[in-house]
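Z., the sequence and structure:
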Amino acid sequence: MPSFLPLFLFSLIILLPIYLFLSTTRKSPKNTPPGSFGIPFIGQSLSLLWAMRANTADEWIAARARRYGAVSKLSLFGTPTVFIYGQAANRFVFSGDGNKLSNQQTDSVRMVLGDRCLLELVGEDHKRIRNALSSFLKPDSLRNYIGKMEEEVLMHLRMHWHGKNNLKVLPLMKTLTFNIICSLLFGVERGAVRDTLVLYFQEMIDGIWSIPLNLPFTRFNRSLKASAKVKKMLSHLISEKRAQLAAGASSHQDLITCLLTSHDSQLVSDDEIIHNVMLIMVAGHDTSSVLITFMVRVLANHPEIHAAVLVEQEGIKKGGALLTWEDLGKMKYTWRVAMETLRMFTPLYGGFRKTLEDIEYQGYTIPKGWQILWVSGMTHMDDSIFPEPSKFDPGRFENPAGVPPYTYIPFGGGARICPGYEFAKIETLITIRYLVTHFTWKLCCNDNRFRRDPMPVPTQGLPIQIMPRKELALTA
């Protein structure tokens, strides 16, 4: 039997693209947007991924827009896709009819995270799960977890920053955000379980955006295997949480216990809990770590902005007490710096929707079952919306209401805005506060380029030299 394996794999590689190409091109409706599907099955997936990793994705997208206009078709990750951009496109994506347009992601994302997460659900299912998640993620609930998050930040600084001279920011921020997720979402403290979970998690996200070719030598195959291990661990954790709740434990320890005891708990299945915890796990880990990392780079490159953030933070006197919700509300300038960082270095380059029926858009037909790709940077870097878009200017957000709707979309928009927005905001503000009040730093690498994989990754993980600002005990 083993002697037939190479022949089988060769035949699969040759025949599968042909089958998929024929299945996606037959009976194609007329009046679809201009463009080409490219190489069968592969399409433009590799060229886009290469452009993202080389930090030329904006040029790749702009060249496509010049060639085909505001609407064009292509093939990404094995699926026919229509690319749209601009304020009208963002409005169409984020305020569209949920019965016609689904928030479904690529096959690779869906297969790794599961088909019952918020990205996949529509209509009443989407509303039900979103309401259940909001029982933990809404501001009124999160204010009760500020102290726990602050303790994680302080412990991280003691372990990884205090007493050090040189370090790389991005890997450390990924460590910090994962520890916060483990603590607040799962109630998993430091130890063997958390260490095992982080290994599986890293393997899982390495192939989450890839061509969904499930063969032994692919990143996607390794990602699927790691995903199965994470799901198994979360299933065991749910059983443990149920037992703890039955023994009288608090129903607000973490996200899982909140989901198990929410008003809709009888309607939320274990699969839905697992898939949505994994979604928030991925989103919270990547977006927050990237945002904080690029804020560190911005503050190093703009001393005047660093000084203004420091003045604001030192004006919030605590005398050793933990931060409060009111303290976070005073960090207005710090958050404007974060918003401008998100505009210029948006963690999520774009996203996908899926048509549930034939849709008419700008005179073209987008057939049922096709993907729609939107890209945030097309409006974030539009000089008609944000003058001098390459200039870093936190003042753009002094009056957020003055920013045209559906042009600033790092967290999405409308009913589909990211439910973890406030979680990310609190995490960012607390971390930046303690970084600027305890340390000063300078970049060890003058290369300001970055690549996307698919999140933005600064050169060498952003190496910096740090100096203690003053001798302060990092205690809660």
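DSSP finds 18 helices and twelve strands in the chain. The first strand starts at residue 71 and ends at 76.

Let me know what you think.
H.
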